[in-house]
Amino acid sequence: MPSFFSLPYDIRQIIYNHALVVGTIAPYQRACAALKDSHSFNPFTELSDPEYRAPDWQVPISPELPNTNLLKTCRLIHAEASPTLYSKNVWVLPPTAWTAKFFESALYNDERRAWVKHVYLYLQAQDISAEERETVAADTLKGYPGDLPWHKVEDLSTNAYRKYLRTVSWPRKASFILEYLALDSLTVDIRWSSCLHGSVSTIAAFADGFKYGVPTHFDISSEEGYYKHVAAIVLQRWTEQRKETFIPLSRGFRENEDMVKNIGRDIAWERTIRG
């Protein structure tokens, strides 16, 4: 009796594409959507506003899910079809803690990480978890009197959240891409970063440079028009410096921000001269 593997390889690939390629996939989408039921999902909204809802993702997520049951039929099919699932879909990385879980559970070795070629990355306020917010707020308010006005508590906490996002959450999330992935395309969406000078603060998360080079197609979604050009130059410089030193740069965050600002001013000045 003929088996599935008696079919020509090209035919098997057509079947894999039909079952597994859906366009855009958001891992843990249901779990992350459940978080939106909490008004404290975004640390920068007023904590007293029960009607607040975090903004929906701006990239359209494919309504159909890949038929991953195909991968469970046998080891041979799993081995042959898995690269199709990971390489031919765009992966929308979830908040930082869930991104870490995705890499631990699905992209746990070099071979599997090499399959991923297309990523859509949000750097946003939601990348700080509820547990981290509680810890950051508690550490921030140490030493202050317990009868501080609520607006003072909120101001102190919000500034601390923003600093934590810039210096911990976003660099950690970016590190999964910088260290492990050789991408063909990467879109970084910073429209929901909720930080002052958001473009500068968010792109500084990539200061260690790409281990495998800047993705062939790189885009950044920002409300600052010229900033895409700035980001491309900065990322290329950081990546080249990484190749020269062979180790992550790990510079101070302020130095990384200053580099972005200086390049941005240079480009603005060049445009002024050119008229």
Features:
275 residues, alpha/beta, 50% helix
Question: How would you summarize the topology of this molecule?
Answer:
Blueprint: H1 9-20, E1 24-25, H2 29-35, H3 75-87, E2 90-93, H4 96-105, H5 110-115, E3 118-122, H6 130-141, H7 150-180, E4 185-189, H8 198-203, E5 217-221, H9 227-245, H10 253-274
Parallel strand pairs: 1-2, 2-3, 3-4, 4-5
Helix pairs in contact: 4-7, 6-7, 9-10
Brief overview:
The protein has 275 residues and is of the alpha/beta class. It is 50% helix and 8% strand.
Low-confidence stretches: 36-57, 247-253, 266-275
Average pLDDT score: 77
Radius of gyration: 21 Å
Tell me the strand percentage band. Answer: 5-15%
List the total number of helices. 10
Report the structural category.
alpha/beta
Shape: elongated
Instruction: Name the strands of the widest sheet in spatial order.
Output: 1-2-3-4-5
Give a short account of the largest sheet: 5 strands, parallel
Distance between the termini: 74 Å
What does this structure look like?
With 275 residues, the protein is of the alpha/beta class. A five-stranded parallel β-sheet has the order 1-2-3-4-5. It has helices spanning 9-20, 29-35, 75-87, 96-105, 110-115, 130-141, 150-180, 198-203, 227-245, 253-274, and strands at 24-25, 90-93, 118-122, 185-189, 217-221. β4, α8 (198-203) and β5 (217-221) form a beta-alpha-beta unit. The chain is elongated, with a radius of gyration of 21 Å. The chain starts with 8 loop residues before the first helix and ends with a helix. The chain has ten helices and five strands, in the order αβααβααβααβαβαα.
